[in-house]
Amino acid sequence: MSLARNRLFSAALGAFAIAIIFDARASRWVGALEQFDIVDLAVVSVHCRRVNDCYANVLDPNGFVHHLSPGEFIGRNQGKVNKIEKCAIHFVELYKNSDGVWYEKENELRFSDEYRPAGCP
């Protein structure tokens, strides 16, 4: 009897963990960089294979570096990366105003002073 109860508890705990990771509002899996505020993230490097084919390495507050490509999400406000350039990551965030209406806001994440390469403002 206790073995069956332990299995049931393990299954329920596993389902709960999946529910935390899955964002029901967006009907998609939540990325690792979506748990942090934008101000807590730092662009470490940008690599371009060709023109308009760039990806970035972003450092989170816990010290982990994440690979970021256009189309992925960043920040707590469902920021979707539109474009990655040599000196900045451009993305659009969703905000809800006091009337309950959602609106988009364009934003960018630039290199911090510590990681800024030559030629970037």
Automatic annotation (TrEMBL):
InterPro entries: PilP. Pfam families: PilP (PF04351). Gene3D superfamilies: 2.30.30.830. This is Pilus assembly protein PilP. It comes from Tahibacter amnicola.
